[in-house]
């Protein structure tokens, strides 16, 4: 079904059909409109409910956060005017800066912040840390609220301002009172753009308009810190699942920016003098193979370990991003390559010679009985689809009974919430990527969480990894953090909550008429101009 839809859409756009032409002409006539091809369809739009990167990107468009990270990844006040820390670090009093308003015109109050933090704290990996530490949170007046902790946590501002999923998006109190495990239906934010829900066409386009009531900070923009100055009246996200369609649209000046160009098309784009290809997210993404701990066969740790000798990270990376070594990094362990906590503890399980026969033998000895393995694949995200194809081939070659099920990304992220057996719509494994910033430290590294039903999809219960994560929060210096990271990696090879597949370094492509693109993380739309 998805392939037929893509082919039809590709034919219409590439042929320059009469239906498409007026929209393109309108966009070209409006120099104040930025046309952007996102990495995937936006199937749900709650950045607290979902960990999907495309949902996070949407959230950064329409919501603001109390703190924002600069290019040095240090938190600085954003919605907050500042904070006071007392009682030996256990009491934070945060003051909002004046002039903050929601898209419906209502002022942002401390009560909105309290409700938003409480909802976010039930879903986010660092939010859950706060939830466990919190001794109370309350509004003191309209512009001030306090967070009381059972013990000091210097990383609180980082947690409230990190750009990685799930973001602590500040919503109106009425919206933030929504159950954390239920998606919101009111998308009123206070960020630099307003989401036009009335114009939302899932699978086609999303419209964002500049929020005239937004009051940016006075400092220069610095990644997610400083003033978010907007120079476009309108940003259109145009969904193009077919890479050839997106490439043609970019070359024909029908769109301005393509978030995830297919590696095979990069040489063609580079030959076009009007197009710039650039590494915007310098931390890249870590490819992962994730297992379901609740259902056979991967509820058995011996079966999960049996897969390790067969994993060829170079094969995964070549399929995902191409054979240019500048676009990927191997070997990759538990933590993002090139970051302070990356290490080689036990890394030979992935970097040593590959041995399919050893994997087959280990699988037999682990007691695998031919259970059907449902491996999910996202057809509209080429990197993930290619990772899944390699994973399916690898698992079959070592003896698994693999059922590769292809679907669009929106359906994929809905499907993986199913905790039931495969015969009841459940799943066994999937491939995805995590942003490098997320998985560079234990605190925000969701794939290593072992807190059962509160963990990321797969839901492992791994007390030792939870103990080590807690120890990292208490580490007093980098040397102590690195020692803990090595032990986390050692335990990961034993428990195998996931398998690292390599670091992907994806490029973005945009027309040279677009200037001011912010580097360091996701595609951002403030500070961007048309030359």
Key phrases:
17 helices, six-stranded mixed β-sheet, disordered N terminus, globular, single chain, 3 domains, Dipeptide-binding Protein, domain 3, D-Maltodextrin-Binding Protein, domain 2
Topology:
Elements (H helix, E strand, L loop, with lengths): L1 H13 L5 H10 L3 E5 L15 H10 L4 E3 L5 E3 L2 E7 L4 E6 L13 H11 L4 H9 E6 L4 E6 L6 H6 L11 H4 L16 E3 L9 E6 L23 E5 L4 H9 L5 E2 L7 H5 L4 E4 L6 E7 L9 H6 L6 H9 L6 E2 L18 H4 L4 H11 L5 E7 L3 H16 L3 E7 L1 H7 L13 E7 L27 H12 L3 H18 L2 E7 L3 E4 L2 E2 L13 E2 L1
Parallel strand pairs: 1-10, 1-11, 15-16, 15-17
Antiparallel strand pairs: 2-3, 4-5, 5-7, 6-7, 8-9, 9-10, 11-19, 12-19, 13-17, 13-18, 14-18, 20-21
Helix pairs in contact: 1-8, 11-14, 16-17
Task: Explain how this protein is built.
InterPro entries: Peptide/Ni-bd, SBP_5, SBP_5_dom. Pfam families: SBP_bac_5. By secondary structure, this protein is α+β, with helices and mostly antiparallel strands. The protein has 3 domains: 44-177, Dipeptide-binding Protein, Domain 1 (Dipeptide-binding Protein, domain 1); 193-277 and 508-530, Periplasmic binding protein-like II (D-Maltodextrin-Binding Protein, domain 2, 3-Layer(aba) Sandwich), CATH 3.40.190.10; 285-504, Dipeptide-binding Protein, Domain 3 (Dipeptide-binding Protein, domain 3). It is 30% helix and 19% strand. It contains 17 helices and 21 strands. The chain has helices at residues 2-14, 20-29, 53-62, 110-120, 125-133, 156-161, 173-176, 243-251, 266-270, 301-306, 313-321, 348-351, 356-366, 382-397, 409-415, 463-474, 478-495, and strands at residues 33-37, 67-69, 75-77, 80-86, 91-96, 134-139, 144-149, 193-195, 205-210, 234-238, 257-258, 275-278, 285-291, 328-329, 372-378, 401-407, 429-435, 498-504, 508-511, 514-515, 529-530. The strands form 5 sheets. It has a 7-stranded mixed β-sheet. A 6-stranded mixed β-sheet has the order 14-18-13-17-15-16. Helix 14 links the parallel strand 15 (372-378) and strand 16. The two termini are 41 Å apart. The model is unreliable at 1-29 (pLDDT under 50).
């Amino acid at each position: 079904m998805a392939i037929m839809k893509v082919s039809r859409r590709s034919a219409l756009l590439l042929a320059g059909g009469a239906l498409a032409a007026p929209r393109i002409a309108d966009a070209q006539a409006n120099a104040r409109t930025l046309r952007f091809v996102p990495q995937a369809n936006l199937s749900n739009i709650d950045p607290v409910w979902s960990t999907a990167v495309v949902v996070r990107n949407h959230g950064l468009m329409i919501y603001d956060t109390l703190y924002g990270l600069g290019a040095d990844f240090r938190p600085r006040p954003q919605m907050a005017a500042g904070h006071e820390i007392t009682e030996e670090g256990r009491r934070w009093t945060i003051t909002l800066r004046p002039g903050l308003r929601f898209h419906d015109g209502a002022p942002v109050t401390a009560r909105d912040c309290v409700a938003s933090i409480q909802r976010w704290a039930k879903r986010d990996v660092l939010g859950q840390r706060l939830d466990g530490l919190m001794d109370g949170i309350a509004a003191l007046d309209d512009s001030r609220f306090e967070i009381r902790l059972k013990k000091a946590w210097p990383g609180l501002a980082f947690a409230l301002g990190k750009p990685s999923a799930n973001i602590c998006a500040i919503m109106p109190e009425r919206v933030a009172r929504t159950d954390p495990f239920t998606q919101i239906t009111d998308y009123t934010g206070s960020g630099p753009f307003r989401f036009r829900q009335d114009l939302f066409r899932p699978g086609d386009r999303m419209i964002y308009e500049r929020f005239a009531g937004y009051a940016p900070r006075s400092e220069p923009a610095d990644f997610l810190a400083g003033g978010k100055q907007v120079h476009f009246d309108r940003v259109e996200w145009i969904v193009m699942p077919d890479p050839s369609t997106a490439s043609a649209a970019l070359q024909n000046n029908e769109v301005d920016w393509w978030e995830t160009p297919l590696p095979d098309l990069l040489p063609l784009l580079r030959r076009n003098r009007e197009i710039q290809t650039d590494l915007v997210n310098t931390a890249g993404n870590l490819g992962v193979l994730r297992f379901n701990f609740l259902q056979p066969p991967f509820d058995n740790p011996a079966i999960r370990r049996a897969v390790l000798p067969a994993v060829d990270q170079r094969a995964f990376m070549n399929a995902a991003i191409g054979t240019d070594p500048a676009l990927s990094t191997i070997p990759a362990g538990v933590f993002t390559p090139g970051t302070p906590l990356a290490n080689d503890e036990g890394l030979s399980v992935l970097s040593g010679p590959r041995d399919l026969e050893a994997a087959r033998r280990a699988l037999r000895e682990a007691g695998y009985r031919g259970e059907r393995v449902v491996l999910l694949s996202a057809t509209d995200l080429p990197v993930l689809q290619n990772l899944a194809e390699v994973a399916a081939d690898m698992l079959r070659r070592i003896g698994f009974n693999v059922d590769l099920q292809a679907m669009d990304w929106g359906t994929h992220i809905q499907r993986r919430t199913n905790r039931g057996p495969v015969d009841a719509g459940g799943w066994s494994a999937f491939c995805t990527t995590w942003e490098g910033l997320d998985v560079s430290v234990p605190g925000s590294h969701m794939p290593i969480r072992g807190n059962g039903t509160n963990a990321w999809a797969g839901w492992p219960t791994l007390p030792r990894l939870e103990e080590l994560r807690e120890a990292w929060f208490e580490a007093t210096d980098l040397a102590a953090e690195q020692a803990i990271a090595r032990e986390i990696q050692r335990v990961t090879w034993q428990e195998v909550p996931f398998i690292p597949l390599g670091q992907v370094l994806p490029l973005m492509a945009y027309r040279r008429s677009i200037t001011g693109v912010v580097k360091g993380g996701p595609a951002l739309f403030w500070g961007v101009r048309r030359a």
